[in-house]
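Hey,
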Amino acid sequence: MSEGRSEGPVAAQHTLPHVVIVGAGFGGLQAARALKHTPVRVTLVDRTNHHLFQPLLYQVATSVLSPNDIAAPTRHLLRGQKNLTVAMAEVSRIDTAQREVQGSERRLRYDYLVLATGAQGSYFGHDEWAEFAPSLKNIAGALVLRDRILKAFEFAEIQEDPSQHRDLLTFVLVGGGPTGVEMAGALASMTRATLRSEFRRIDPASARIILVDAGPRILATYAESLSRKTHAKLTRMGVEIRTGARVEHVDADGVVVSGERIPSRCVFWTAGVHASPAGVWLGAETDHAGRVKVGPDLTVPGHPEIFVVGDTACIEEHGKPLPGLAQVAMQSGHYAGRSIAQRVTGRPALPPFKYLDKGNMATVSPWFAVMESGRVKLSGFPAKVLWAFLHVLYLSGFENRLMVLLSWIWSALTNQSGARLIEDSSYEALRSARVRETATAGKARGVA
């Protein structure tokens, strides 16, 4: 469906430059907000109707939070921005010659384009593993993980053969970065505390949690001292950590790690990511993870009207690409919006984008986290307080902030959580999403 035109005040609106933002994640939302007082028309396109706080997805997967605690309707968040329209649609192609964003149901002409389409789980060329080892990139994936975790205990409880309990209650996490570490810690807390007195025929604390990473240590991007402390804390919580271990195969019955077969019905992918197919849409140069290589002003070489931000972009500083963090997405999105505002109003161009590193954080238990910011390195309860404060601060909406804070306090004090519901429909949601993502990734590799 093409853009229509009407008369009167709406027709006057069409004389303004049109900014299309694809993606309502951290980067897209910040780009839109930066244009609030700029004389432009903004259309924010996303295939869902909500903004998701991805860093807390693992807490949905481990029953600490509900999906609505970490997501908010995009229209509600931007309801006060009169120059913005939200469109729920899926983008399939970009015609850079015609300056047109194309989807199955709509085409949008643009004067400026901001691509903030994020990333998805990367299985390093083994997309067939996705069916057996779901990743944490959206609500559907988090609900599938939650269902598999809860069903493992339910199936073990009614399994008459005790020898089957070990396989049912073995959880394997592939990837020792922040997501894997946080997921392992949350699972350990869940099995050792939350579920402790709720089953009669099995002991939830007997569950085996294995964290696997191909590198020499977990939290490889953090200081080695923090990595060691996190390793020690997880070990005390009962997590088996295997570093220098490479995953060779995943199927419905388990995983092969460095030649060893580990029987498990619950293998979860917390390893690498691959950018959306934005680079293919643009015909632009990308890095090994599919991220579009952008200039110092975050535009695509040869296309000064196209900005790429967040996990979709390969933004280099001091010769190294910036990490895929929420802060990078937020700051780059804000920069893109401001850059467009400067151009539209005829003001001088902004200086090259410069990332302000606000530090890395990872939480392990209700009372322990690690934080690194420059020379400052914290671990334990002080880091946990800072982690909680910043995560609540950046959540969208006062109600979400309040509910998450209360849930955390209740969970920490009582070892209980109220989100332990099994939803079979989430399997279908994930299957549909993975079919779409795998097909897109296959097309991307074919074009590239």
